[in-house]
Design brief:
The chain is of the alpha+beta class and 759 residues long. Helix 1 links the parallel strand 1 and strand 2. It is globular and about 95 Å long. It starts with 13 loop residues before the first strand and ends with a strand.
Length: 759
């Protein structure tokens, strides 16, 4: 049908009015996790994204890997991968996309959002105006979709700004900061002496591809000619692509919002200039067949506005690992600051100062202090510039945003505003609801009043005893310090026997250390030492006895000192909560084996103790006497969903081929849902793109199982599982005197179960 119109007075855009409980502006990882969490809690959610895909800096448009507290396994934060929705997405991406293809990751995010019936997704749609009432409560937001030439007027009781630059908060008049505070404001010793406008800049990446035939590259006229003005400070490698080129950064001295297009053009000049230098300078061999496969079209932004909540997180909260009554999330990336001039700066590309462990992030940083119904999510959190250096990474932003989504649900249910969630009694209920969804809050134990599992008698077909890691015949020269990180119970420390080869008689020294703070994995308290003398030979037992007792269950370090002519036997066996660490550094996130900050910087000096990544990862071969009984069935209801101050998991014995876990109550209970938490190795970072991973499923994850009632009724038969959390929502509540989980299949490590909940 032909449409033929003429209107000399002009026309108005098509307009649609939409209504929701929560409107989320911004579809990066923070917006996605906030929207999914709120929708699953029953809220009607509208998610507005100004780009054609979701994910923000993690999307195929920018291509930055998602990271957080695990920091490429380059710090001392063990088992610290974020939980909840972002973990769910990362684990699924590993299953579908171990190669790290950014296009596959884009499709996963779109699926995860669009399969939620309570989410209305608006892509290519940007916020441009809003309406408030006399009390500064936001009533509606005007948005525009360039692809459909449609204006959407979105009304909601609650709004979340997850836009990165804080467009919603800016339009609403929310208090914000931009730049670096003076050291005196928060007592931050890393901060400048006076306030300055220096931000972290933008980055833009490219990918190359080997075409198997010579390819010519003619640079565009705008490409930077004198590339050596930046390369003289950097180590440029032909093998680097994508976010390994993070140091192609610029713009921190400009307005990183309004000057973004200018910054992008400068980054294009730099990136095309770098590629021209690689292809045509003659300084790089074997590049003739390489072509420029992809160039970023939009820069990845780091820093712009930071909005003010009822609390502003600062350096001391991070380094001192301060405890907050309203802890809702956690961080663990280094305080990672970059020079404002980026590639044109003579300074190092970044300075990274790690804490000894993860730190709590309080809920009071997640809402505006002066716009009553505005939540803050993502990098616009209420934080100082120095603290921003740590909290800005995407896994941390996403984990925070899950807390925002849950807070929004509580607000709608109780008809309250975001600030009221921080009231003590509500905060306790809020934290427990978060933990139920897989959120990890360091130091906050699950104690769900509706969970009936802790009242059950819990038994199992068998229980793993940590008594030996069998030698695989592989050897490692004892040239650097190494340590077994082991879960021990309160009481006497057991005897340890290592298996070693010695080319000559020698004395081998070992020590027992622990962390000064519960939950940390930095050995900074020496408990005992021992020495054993060895003759020359192979497969020699090196036995260490320590006269020391532990006051509580904890992870401890059996540190073995270097010894000339000694080789340590290794083991391929893996157990939940057990790692072998090496005193070394990861060049991606550290400059030396021992962090040595400037004097009076407020940052701790300590050594890095890091595991190897699989498939290279090995443990030290060891015999432990008596064996440690730390995998008891009762662990599944102790309130911890990961190794935190202990294993906190049940695992069956190694020779149990048909293991089961059983919960039985004295009287029948009414059950509506059952949730089980499996071992997807929270120590593995699962970088979302580029790096690639050797496994699709974590070694200790239970992959097939059956669930039945004590009366014999089959509730579920699962033939393929790779996720951390599995939840069964029963169509009708059942009455039963118990449940039994039968384990059918798992990977090369013993299958571990961290939690069982029965609500």
């Amino acid at each position: 049908m032909l449409i033929h119109e003429f209107n000399p007075e002009g026309r108005s855009l098509r307009r649609e009015c939409l209504d929701a409980d929560l409107a989320v502006i911004g579809g990066g990882m923070a917006g996605v996790c906030c929207a999914i969490t709120a929708a699953r809690e029953g809220l009607r959610v509208i998610l507005v994204q100004d780009r054609p895909v979701l994910g923000g800096n993690a999307s195929g448009e920018v291509r930055l890997w998602i990271l957080g507290a695990t920091s490429h396994m380059g710090n001392n934060n063990r088992w610290s991968r974020e939980g909840g929705v972002v973990d769910e997405i990362m684990v699924e991406n590993l299953w579908r996309n171990p190669e790290g293809n950014p296009v596959i990751f884009d499709s996963l995010l779109l699926e995860w959002v669009t399969r939620e019936p309570n989410i209305t997704l608006l892509l290519n749609t940007t916020a441009s105006a809003l309406e408030k009432d006399a009390q500064d409560v936001v009533q509606s937001v005007s948005t525009f979709c360039s692809q459909s030439q449609t204006e959407y007027i979105i009304s909601a009781s609650l709004f979340c700004d997850a836009s990165g630059d804080g467009i919603l908060g800016f339009l609403a008049g929310a208090a914000f900061r931009m730049g670096a505070e003076a050291a005196s404001e928060f007592g931050e010793k890393l901060a400048p002496s006076v306030p300055i406008h220096e931000l972290l800049g933008h980055s833009l990446y490219f990918y190359s591809r080997d075409t198997a035939r010579p390819v010519q590259f003619i640079p565009p006229a705008f490409a930077l000619k004198n590339i050596k003005e930046i390369v003289r400070h950097r180590e440029l490698r032909v093998t680097d692509s994508g976010c390994r080129l993070w140091w192609l950064e610029y713009g921190g001295g400009l307005d990183t919002i309004h000057d973004t297009e200018q910054i992008k053009w400068e980054l294009w000049r730099v990136a095309y200039g770098v590629w021209n230098y690689i292809k045509n300078s003659g300084e790089f061999p074997d590049v003739a067949n390489l072509t420029l496969e992809w160039m970023g079209m939009i820069p990845g932004k780091r820093e712009s506005r930071r909005f003010e909540g009822d609390y502003i997180l600062s350096q001391n909260d991070i380094v001192e690992q301060r405890t907050h009554f309203d802890a809702a999330s956690f961080g663990g990336w280094a305080i990672d600051l970059h020079p404002a001039k980026g590639v044109f700066s003579p300074e190092p590309a970044c300075t990274q100062w790690h804490s000894k462990g993860v730190y709590q992030i309080p809920y009071r940083t997640m809402y505006s202090r002066n716009i009553p119904n505005l939540f803050l999510a993502g990098r616009i959190l209420s934080i100082s510039h120095i603290a921003f250096g740590s909290t800005r990474v995407m896994a941390t932003c996403a984990h925070n945003a899950q807390a925002v989504g849950m807070a929004a649900a509580l607000c709608v249910e109780e008809k309250i505003l975001p600030r009221q969630v921080a009231e003590p009694e509500r905060m306790r209920r809020f934290q427990q609801r978060l933990l139920r969804t897989g959120q990890h809050i360091p130091g906050v134990r699950a104690a769900d009043a509706d969970d009936q599992a802790p009242e059950a008698h819990i038994s199992s077909s068998s229980t793993l005893v940590l008594d030996a890691l069998q030698s695989s015949g592989e050897l490692h020269a004892a040239e650097t310090p190494c340590a077994l990180l082991l879960p021990l119970l309160a009481g006497a420390v057991p005897e340890f026997t290592l298996l070693v080869d010695a080319v000559a008689p020698v004395s081998l020294h070992a020590e027992i250390w622990k962390s000064s703070r519960s939950g940390n994995a930095t050995p900074d308290v020496k408990l005992a030492s021992a020495v054993t003398s060895l003759f020359a030979g192979t497969s020699l037992p090196a036995t260490f006895r320590f006269d020391v007792r532990l006051n509580e269950d904890a992870h401890v370090f059996l540190i073995v000192h270097p010894a000339p002519g000694i080789s340590l036997h290794l083991s391929r066996q893996q157990f939940p909560g057990v790692l072998t660490l090496w005193q070394k550094m990861n060049r991606m996130v550290a400059k030396s084996v021992v962090q040595s900050p400037p004097e009076d910087s407020g940052v701790d000096s300590f050594a890095f103790w890091l595991p190897e990544r699989r498939p290279a990862a090995r443990n030290l071969a060891v015999t432990i006497a008596p064996g440690v009984q730390c995998y008891e069935p009762r662990m599944v209801v102790n309130g911890w969903g990961r190794p935190w101050c202990g294993v906190n998991a049940w695992a069956p014995s190694r020779d149990d081929n048909a293991p089961w876990l059983r919960l039985v109550w004295d009287q029948p209970r009414t059950i509506r849902s059952i949730q089980v938490t499996f071992d997807t190795d929270f120590d593995h970072p699962m970088e979302s793109i580029l790096m690639g991973h050797p496994e699709r499923v974590m070694p200790g994850c239970l992959t097939a199982f059956d669930l039945r009632t004590a009366e014999g009724e089959t509730l579920a038969v699962v033939s393929e599982n790779h996720h951390t959390h599995w939840r069964l929502m029963l169509p009708q509540p059942i009455s039963t005197s118990g449940i039994e989980l039968s384990l059918r299949a798992w990977g090369p490590a013993p299958p571990a179960i961290f939690e069982v909940r029965c609500n």
